[in-house]
Specification:
Elements lengths: L5 H17 L7 E4 L19 H21 L2 E4 L16
Parallel strand pairs: 1-2
Helix pairs in contact: 1-2
Length: 95
């Protein structure tokens, strides 16, 4: 099995957003909380203790693009999560 690359996730995310935007807007917008996307790369070439900077940059760009597309659709109202106390999942830390 071939491991999927970060670009595949970005393309799938954008395709999903495009499909959501294709449907007509509902009378009342649906509230969505979209947290930052994360990538757990378990492939042999992945960094062992952190996310690669290029992956972090790409994931941040995809997250922002999805937020913008969904907000512009008129069907969804994106909730600001910047003030929330959520913590990113860190698969490299011991539990």
């Amino acid at each position: 099995m071939i491991a999927p690359k970060a670009g595949n996730y970005a393309a799938a995310s954008l395709l999903g957003a495009a499909l959501l935007l294709a449907f007509p807007a509902a009378a009342a917008s649906i509230k969505l909380a979209i947290f930052d996307f994360e990538l757990e790369d378990t492939s042999a070439g992945a960094p062992s203790n952190s996310e690669a900077p290029s992956d972090a940059t790409q994931l941040a760009a995809v997250t922002n693009e999805i937020r913008q597309l969904l907000a512009q659709s008129g069907r969804y109202s994106v909730v600001d999560v910047s003030a929330s106390n959520w913590a990113p999942i860190n698969p490299w830390s011991a539990s």
